[in-house]
Design a protein that fits this description.
This protein is mainly beta and about 400 residues long. Helix content is about 5%, strand content about 40%. It has three helices and 30 strands. A hairpin with a 5-residue loop joins strand 23 and strand 24. The protein is globular, with a radius of gyration of 20 Å. The structure holds alpha-D-galactopyranose. Pfam families: Aldose_epim (PF01263).
């Protein structure tokens, strides 16, 4: 790996010229995003060289800005490398955990910001049976297959093109996964579109088609810290999830199949509460995941259009995030396995609970769980999934 900060020189795209030479992707001085209002003012996406993989593949970083939000996406893994939002005083910070060079992502990343496929979360015993045939997957999490296997979509270089529609500015990412890749049947043609709307919302639309029956469950693995990445614990963020049930797990974090009620447990986020409030109450499920690492069964179920299901508020900065999705579930992960060994974009180390993920998706291990909504995709059908993240600030403390 040869990336150095000096290789991060801006390159022209033919569409637009990248902003001035950048030193690193650290949260920076006041940015265009900070100055623009929440009512539009988008710019065309810009592209710069971010690094080179060992096999010589080039990795680009794209920058999008619209409605007060600035987003940076890598062609490697389709990674959200930074997401800059203003706080209630208009001060901008990067609220997504990650690295300032490709090396960090390649060497040892717990899926920071990445697109996950073909299957988000775990498949028990690293195998499943479809139409009478059993498929063996790479086991990369004890006996189970996690996040698409040893080389999932998070570790692939995607084709990226700018996209624009009305006031929205975006990118279209494409990846073709060959029949049998990571053990999954069928050639899977995947398209992910990242869009910023004039109100600064981030929308992610996923589609996929196959030429053989297969299973699919795509998501994005951004770790959020609305106070700014590297600023410490997320325990004071207030979280609300519109879910009356969740899926308890066994000791390898595979759902038992039960849809348990959240009422009277630490899993009850139906009214907003600080993430840290019940983290230490000794509930056996919390002990199993070393914190929250569970799929919540969204009350609205699978929907054709994104419906609001989650809200998060960070009290110090006042930053807020709302999430709407078409998906029936969300994996709420409280960053339990961050262990102080990774240094993030800001140069600060990430410890347990310094970021949280809200992975909107179908339930873990659905291919082995007949009671869960199906994740089977057949030729002639299109997999579709959309999630919208809306950002804002609350008035004050
Ligand atoms: C998911 C899983 C967690 C963990 C993270 C990545 O959220 O459910 O158990 O593997 O991804 O570290």
């Amino acid at each position: 790996m040869t990336t150095s900060r000096r290789t991060l020189l801006a390159a022209t795209t033919g569409i637009a010229t990248a902003a001035a030479t950048t030193t690193a992707a650290t949260a920076a001085a006041p940015t265009t995003a900070a100055r623009s209002s929440r009512t539009g003012s988008h710019q065309p996406p810009t592209r710069e060289h971010f690094g080179t993989l060992d096999n010589g593949d080039r990795v680009d970083r794209w920058t999008l800005a619209n409605g007060g939000t600035r987003l940076r996406i890598l062609s490697y893994g389709g990674i959200v490398q930074s997401l800059e939002l203003p706080d209630r005083r208009g001060r901008t910070a990067n609220v997504s955990l990650g690295f300032d060079s490709v090396d960090g992502y390649v060497a040892d990343s717990p899926y920071f910001g990445a697109l996950i496929g073909r299957y988000g979360n775990r498949i028990a015993g690293a195998k499943f049976t479809l139409d009478g045939k059993t498929y063996q997957l790479p086991a990369n999490d004890g006996p189970n297959s996690l996040h698409g296997g040893t080389k999932g979509f998070d570790k692939r270089v995607w084709d990226v093109e700018p996209y624009r529609s009305g006031g929205d500015v975006g990118l279209t990412l494409r990846y073709v996964s060959k029949d049998g890749e990571m053990g999954y049947p069928g050639t899977l043609r995947t398209r992910v579109r990242y869009l910023l709307t004039p109100r600064g919302e981030l929308r992610i639309d996923y589609t996929a088609t196959t030429d053989k029956a297969t299973v699919v469950n795509l998501t994005n693995h951004t770790y959020f810290n609305l106070a700014g990445e590297g600023s410490g614990s997320i325990e004071s963020h207030r979280l609300r999830i519109a879910a009356s049930r969740y899926t308890p797990v066994d000791d390898t974090l595979i759902p038992t199949g039960e849809l348990a009620r959240v009422a009277g447990t630490p899993f009850d986020f139906r009214r907003a509460k600080p993430i840290g409030k019940d983290l230490r109450d000794g509930h056996p499920q919390i002990l199993r995941g070393q914190g929250f690492d569970h799929n919540f069964v969204l009350d609205k179920g699978l929907t054709e259009r994104p419906r609001p299901v989650i809200s998060v508020t960070e009290p110090e900065s006042g930053r807020t995030m709302r999430v709407a999705t078409t998906e029936p579930g969300v994996q709420f992960y409280s960053g339990n396995f961050l262990d102080g060994t990774l240094k993030g974009s800001s140069g600060r180390v990430y410890r347990a609970g310094d970021g949280f993920c809200l992975e909107t998706q179908h339930f873990p291990d659905s291919p082995n769980q007949p009671g869960f909504p199906s994740t089977v995709l057949r030729p002639g059908h299109t997999y579709r999934s959309s999630t919208v993240y809306s950002f804002g600030t609350d008035g004050g403390r």
